[in-house]
Design goal:
The complex is a heterodimer of chains A (about 110) and B (about 260).
Chain A lengths: L3 H10 L4 E10 L9 E5 L4 E3 L4 H17 L3 E6 L15 E9 L8
Antiparallel strand pairs in A: 1-2, 1-5, 2-3, 4-5
Chain B lengths: L1 H13 L3 E10 L9 E5 L2 E4 L5 H17 L3 E6 L5 E9 L4 E5 L5 H10 L3 E6 L15 E4 L2 H6 L7 E5 L4 H11 L6 E4 L3 H15 L3 H4 L2 E2 L11 H17 L11
Parallel strand pairs in B: 6-7, 6-9, 7-8, 9-10, 10-11
Antiparallel strand pairs in B: 1-2, 1-5, 2-3, 4-5
The chains are: A alpha+beta (about 110), B alpha/beta (about 260).
Chain lengths: ~110, ~260
Amino acid sequence: MEDIYDDVKEFLDKGETVAVATIVSTKGSTPREVGAKMVVTAWGEILGTIGGGCGEADVRREAIEVVRTRTPRTVRVDLLDDISSDSPAVCGGIMNVFIDPWWKEKETDG
Amino acid sequence: MDALVEELIRIKGEGAGAVLVTVVESQGLDGFDSGSKCLIRDGRIVLGQVNDQELEQTLLQEAAERLSEERSRLVSVETASGGQADVFFEAMPSPPKLIVVGAGHIAVPLVRMAKLMDYHVVVIDDRILFANHERFPDADEVVVGDMAETVKDLDITPTTYVVLITRGHKYDEPCLRELLDQPAKYIGMIGSKRRIKACFERFKEEEQVSEELISRVYAPIGLDIATETPEEIALGILGEIIKVRRGGKAQSLSQKR
């Protein structure tokens, strides 16, 4: 398991809200597996990876919104889109990424 | 969130198995909204609350399956009251444990490779000349003692993998006898087909061991990859362990006719 929660704790202790993005389902070939996570801060700083490339950049952009609004959302990342591009992240699959805001005082049960 | 993050860090430190349950989307379920979470450990909810008893049972059951599969998954759940939710089960399994009984020439490369794959490795032999940290610098535990007695006292769980590669079947067999009714995910034993058959017949006749228990044993040990050297045999054994762990399809020597 990744060492991501130590980082999350540091941000929460500083009073920051972060977005935890998790790949919850995939179809076809994707750069990382279900359960892979990355943390995005209000400033767009990234810890961990869900595979890099354009998909990750999309998720980062959405994650900044999630931090701002403190409302979770699911983002569908389609890696089929730019099959002709030179990006090394072209895998041909689709992944659904759940982006969840975490802050210190948030109740665990919704 | 504070308590949850601290619990997640503690679980990781202890190497305990747990499942983090997160609601991704839901309809018609009060207090079970997108982003709601609970943490399941040792078959119960240790953090977070679920109001619906039926739903709680569903979550616990699903979590147990995800943990034994060591695989995270998005699952659609429904309740009798007409509620529906997409729930993500994040499996955080405890690290797999490999117990190597017999510290001979196959054990050395086997332990090195298993450490490369992050197994918690225990080596057991009754000879201190073989079972020592100089010979196994990577091993997490090296135990010197009667092998069957030591095996009997081990804490064996569904994430434990046991390899019996002692210097002779008269040592392997008593160890196997101690292991047969344990919940290990994998038990493999070295030996020729003929000798293994004789051992299994004896277990069945003299000790009324069931066919079901015996069929769990991978013997002769390893994948069918025509191994020759100790290193290759070790690779075949580890390959078989990975097959069992991940649900692969490669042919084992024990399946070969």
